[in-house]
């Protein structure tokens, strides 16, 4: 059956759906025939020449050229058994690939079809914001002036209003015992509160009035209620109420006044008053009594549009769907209030999140996550004889972690209620036995369901599902469960295959993004007519703000071409980047026969010539070609040791680099990196089979030197081996640039440590950086060993100046770029980290003049977006020019600015947000903005400027590499390519390295002076 939302063809019969654009609604293919289109998209049906027959076709199936979005063809499905996959409709003539079929993942389902049709562009309104309306005392003057539009709206509020604050507690009463209910489930608490409001009109009056006058929030960890009226203390009881655990019980709600809140301009950013202001803005969607709750799903500051919605059609991801929504957050302005009217801004932005598809059968949900498609009736029937092995149970456990489910109505006496996932039980319904008081004997789950509900369990070999609460040991057959009917946001990363499908849906150019914001703010969320805001005397002017900006000039670097010229091409062409002769010999290791060297000779030559052309002397042939079989993984260390011994015979001054050709496998990546870098100090470059194929194809089309893939690999090797991208012409006083980052384990991992990294330059040109890495306590945000780590960076800077410049120098200026902290954590940065930095400086510079310190926080995770209203370049689509800086109008701190240093490639550029927490150097705004912009041009892995200063980017890479190193210390600790480990059930065997985790992330001494993390 074809999926009408996304095109694509279907499983057993032929046929494939087309793209999702301008045409008919149907989408299923015939028994051996053609396909239809998407909901609005015309399919390019295959007609008679469509897919293969029921059980005969090996062919892939035809496909018409017909009506996708822009001449995109619908795809033909494949046959039932061992037939080729069909292709879905593309976007502009492109065909989607076919998904796997019934037998061994090889049979025909069609592709998923083309993208959702472009949404109409709204003519949104813009109001110019003058400097006087939000003055700033930290403004630069350099650069070309321009005007930009920001996704902010003016916010007005009554500074004289007093809002009463209450503590709300819920209790469950059973047999004269009172048990306090945890408020961690905010959604359940909110629903429970409003059910009390609706049932107690005598106390609350008309519920339609109260929903406008009550907010539910969590302030300082307590459940709180804010309102416009004084209630005093109120105790309400509901008999035979459905409790938080889904069982019938008596619930008591107690409300107690705790104080008042006034929304006044204050110097603190994260205070109770502005939290309440944010709740006022989103309250209408949060309240189930209001009509907006039926079309909007609210999570904190994000308002997601519930399907169906013709303008914001969700992206179908099988067991998941991606919804578009509106992010809304109040920000303080610097302008003083006028009378009783306070001034601020509301930051509106587009939000995207993946949600579990409501009502999806749990087995179907797992099947789609594994294969990319749902099972048909025949496949489901065959599951009667199958179970799951340990690996599959672990996958299911990870997939269902944190999921709210619902029991199906399998019998009249089987209560259809909500259930929270707890665990996957290793035993099947037949094997799991328990003492049943009702039946007076020991029974299996299968026997219990037959006797109690007259229901025959179908999948008797499948694992059971344990539901909350954990202590009650409630287990259910997997077939009686489905995903809850209530929307649930996915709290972890999507599987890689599904994540790749979201890029086009989430990446929108600036004008389309601002049009979407306008549509949601005015139409779906209707902020112009918000009754809650009106009741609390809060008003939003739904016009985007136009503000002034400047475009900084790119730095002048010591290249044969200026960076202005280099930005127009995709790779650096300057030879002799090393500045001194470097001889390298590549040593090739092929894992699991993923490539044959004789067939990939063109790819190898492209890589070698790319390096040679740019200043590295590389022997044309590898020193050796070694095969490694992962079935003998215990031999990997011996293999690396033998290659290191062999390299000793390659001559003096030769730097060996192991090139690893590998399948896309996380164990291979982490194991090679761990053994090479932790034990033997060997440089390595991992190249996946997919990348080898790209390299081979590019070399075949245009010759070795035209390969962009080869150039990108060169940049990584260049950095690892001591090369540099370029240097600034102007050399400042000895300056140490420090980048700091901390990464944390994935959700659900309760054992792995957090990883902290300090990266600093060891030359005066800020082109060579080295890292100091530590593992620290689980989810600790502050760097625990900051003093020791910073001291090490000072030592390395002094040694590096001797090595590269012939004179030992100590830094006279230190500029620290700290990443990964929010405004609410600034005080902690100053208290815990900056104080440790100060002590390290005092120790190292005892008796001599101390350097001046500047501390800058860099944020990427924010929702401020701009578009250049003067940009008419169709390719740029309104994105900011590289070097655009905004340091006034919308800032709320004394020293704060936005800088977009990168060139917009896809979607809307995200500027970086800089906060200056300390500045003993007394830099001007121009100096700090120019310095930050210049450092974005020195990232060794990219020929164009990146979005954050190079030291911060290197700290990211060092943290992720350390995450792989930690996992490599025990092969029961696998992590993905994004540096995130698997859930805690895989971490138990890592206890032996949890005692001294930092030993698992510190590289071999010989690699410490290098940029091994690139």
TrEMBL record:
Q: Which Pfam families match?
A: PAZ (PF02170), Piwi (PF02171)
- Region called Disordered, residue ranges: 1-120
Tell me a Gene Ontology molecular-function term this record carries.
RNA binding
All residue ranges annotated as the Piwi domain in the record? 657-967
Task: Return the Gly residues bias intervals.
Answer: 1-114
Q: Where is the PAZ domain?
A: 370-485
Highest rank taxon of the organism: Eukaryota
Q: Which Gene3D superfamilies match?
A: 3.40.50.2300, paz domain (2.170.260.10), Ribonuclease H-like superfamily/Ribonuclease H (3.30.420.10)
Q: What is this protein called?
A: Uncharacterized protein
Please name the taxonomic classification of the source: Eukaryota, Metazoa, Ecdysozoa, Nematoda, Chromadorea
């Amino acid at each position: 059956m074809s999926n009408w939302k996304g095109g694509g063809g279907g499983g057993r019969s032929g046929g494939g759906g087309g793209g999702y654009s301008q045409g008919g609604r149907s989408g299923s293919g015939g028994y051996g025939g053609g396909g239809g289109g998407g909901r609005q998209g015309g399919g390019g049906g295959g007609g008679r020449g469509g897919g293969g027959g029921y059980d005969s076709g090996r062919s892939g199936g035809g496909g018409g050229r017909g009506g996708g979005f822009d001449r995109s063809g619908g795809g033909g499905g494949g046959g039932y058994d061992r037939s080729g996959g069909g292709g879905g409709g593309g976007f502009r003539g492109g065909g989607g690939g076919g998904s796997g079929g019934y037998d061994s993942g090889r049979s025909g389902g069609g592709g998923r079809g083309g993208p959702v049709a472009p949404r109409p562009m709204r003519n949104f309104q813009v109001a110019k914001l003058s400097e006087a309306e939000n003055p700033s005392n930290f403004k630069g003057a350099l650069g070309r002036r321009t005007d930009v539009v920001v996704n902010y709206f003016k916010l007005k509020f009554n500074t004289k209003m007093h809002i009463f604050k209450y503590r709300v507690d819920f209790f469950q009463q059973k047999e004269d015992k009172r048990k306090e209910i945890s408020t961690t489930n905010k959604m359940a608490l909110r629903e429970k509160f409003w059910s009390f409001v609706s049932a107690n009109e005598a106390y609350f009056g008309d519920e339609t009035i109260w929903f406008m006058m009550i907010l539910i929030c969590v302030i300082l960890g307590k459940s709180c209620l804010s309102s416009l009226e004084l209630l005093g203390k109120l105790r309400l009881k509901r008999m035979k109420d459905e409790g938080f655990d889904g069982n019938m019980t008596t619930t008591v709600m107690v409300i107690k006044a705790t104080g008042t809140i006034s929304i006044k301009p204050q110097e603190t950013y994260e205070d109770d008053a502005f939290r309440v202001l944010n709740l006022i803005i989103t309250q209408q969607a949060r309240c189930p009594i209001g009509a907006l709750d039926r079309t909007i799903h609210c999570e904190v500051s994000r308002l997601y549009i519930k399907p169906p919605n013709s303008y914001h059609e969700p992206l179908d991801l099988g067991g998941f769907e991606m919804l578009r929504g509106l992010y809304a957050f109040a920000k303080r302005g610097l302008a003083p209030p006028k009378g009783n009217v306070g001034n601020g801004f509301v930051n509106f932005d587009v939000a995207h999140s993946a949600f579990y598809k409501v009502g999806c059968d749990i087995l179907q949900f797992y099947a789609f996550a594994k294969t990319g498609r749902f099972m048909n009736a025949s496949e489901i029937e065959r599951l009667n004889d199958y179970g799951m092995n340990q690996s599959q149970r672990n996958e299911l456990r990870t997939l269902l972690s944190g999921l709210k489910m619902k029991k199906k109505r399998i019998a009249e006496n089987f209560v259809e209620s909500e259930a929270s996932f707890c665990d996957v039980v290793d035993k099947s319904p037949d094997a799991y036995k328990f003492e049943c008081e009702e039946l007076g004997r020991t029974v299996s789950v299968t026997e219990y369901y037959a006797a109690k509900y007259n229901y025959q369990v179908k999948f008797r070999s499948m694992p059971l599902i344990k539901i909350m609460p954990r202590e009650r040991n409630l287990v259910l057959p997997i077939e009686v469960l489905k995903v809850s009917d209530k929307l649930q946001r996915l709290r972890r990363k999507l599987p890689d295959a599904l994540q790749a499908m979201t890029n086009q849906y989430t990446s929108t150019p600036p004008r389309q993004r601002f049009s979407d914001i306008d549509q949601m703010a005015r139409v779906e969320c209707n902020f112009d007519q918000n009754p809650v805001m009106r009741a609390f005397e809060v008003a939003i002017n739904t016009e985007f703000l136009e503000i002034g900006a400047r475009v900084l000039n790119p730095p002048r670097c010591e290249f044969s071409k200026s960076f202005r010229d280099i930005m127009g091409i995709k790779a650096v062409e300057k030879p002799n980047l090393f500045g001194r002769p470097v001889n390298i010999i590549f040593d090739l290791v092929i894992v699991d026969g993923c490539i044959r060297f004789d067939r990939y000779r063109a790819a190898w030559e492209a890589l070698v010539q790319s390096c040679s052309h740019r200043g590295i002397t590389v022997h044309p042939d590898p020193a050796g070609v070694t095969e490694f079989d992962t079935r003998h993984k215990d031999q990997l260390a011996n293999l690396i040791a033998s290659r290191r011994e062999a390299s000793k015979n390659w001559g003096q001054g030769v730097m060996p680099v192991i090139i690893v050709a590998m399948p896309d496998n996380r164990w291979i990546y982490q194991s090679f990196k761990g053994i090479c870098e932790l034990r033997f100090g060997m440089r390595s470059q991992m190249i996946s089979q997919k990348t080898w194929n790209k390299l081979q194809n590019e070399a075949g089309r245009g010759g070795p030197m035209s390969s962009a893939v080869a150039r990108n690999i060169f940049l990584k090797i260049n950095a690892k081996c001591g090369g540099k991208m370029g240097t600034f012409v102007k050399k400042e006083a000895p300056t140490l640039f420090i980048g700091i980052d901390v990464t944390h384990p994935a959700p659900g991992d309760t054992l792995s440590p957090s990883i902290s990294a300090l990266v600093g330059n060891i030359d005066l040109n800020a082109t060579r950086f080295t890292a100091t890495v530590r593992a620290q306590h689980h989810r600790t945000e502050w760097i625990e060993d900051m003093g020791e780590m910073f001291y090490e960076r000072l030592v390395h800077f002094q040694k590096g100046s001797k090595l590269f410049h012939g004179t030992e120098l100590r830094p006279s200026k230190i500029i620290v770029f700290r990443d990964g902290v929010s405004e609410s954590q600034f005080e902690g940065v100053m208290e815990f980290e900056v104080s440790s930095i100060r002590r390290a400086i005092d120790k190292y510079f005892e008796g001599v003049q101390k350097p001046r310190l500047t501390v800058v926080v860099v944020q990427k995770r924010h929702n401020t977006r701009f578009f250049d209203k003067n940009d008419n370049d169709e390719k740029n689509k309104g994105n900011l020019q590289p070097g655009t800086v905004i340091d006034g109008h919308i800032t709320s701190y004394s020293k704060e600015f936005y800088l977009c240093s990168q060139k917009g490639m896809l979607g809307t550029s995200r500027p970086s947000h800089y906060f200056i927490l300390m500045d003993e150097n007394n830099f001007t705004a121009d100096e700090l903005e120019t310095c930050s912009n210049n450092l974005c041009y020195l990232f060794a892995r990219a020929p164009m400027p990146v979005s954050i200063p190079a030291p911060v980017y290197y700290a990211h890479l060092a943290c992720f590499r350390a995450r792989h190193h930690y996992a490599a210390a025990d092969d029961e600790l696998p992590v993905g390519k994004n540096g995130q480990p698997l859930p805690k059930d895989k971490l138990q065997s890592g206890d032996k390295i949890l005692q001294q985790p930092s030993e698992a992330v510190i590289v071999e001494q010989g690699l410490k002076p290098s940029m091994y993390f690139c």
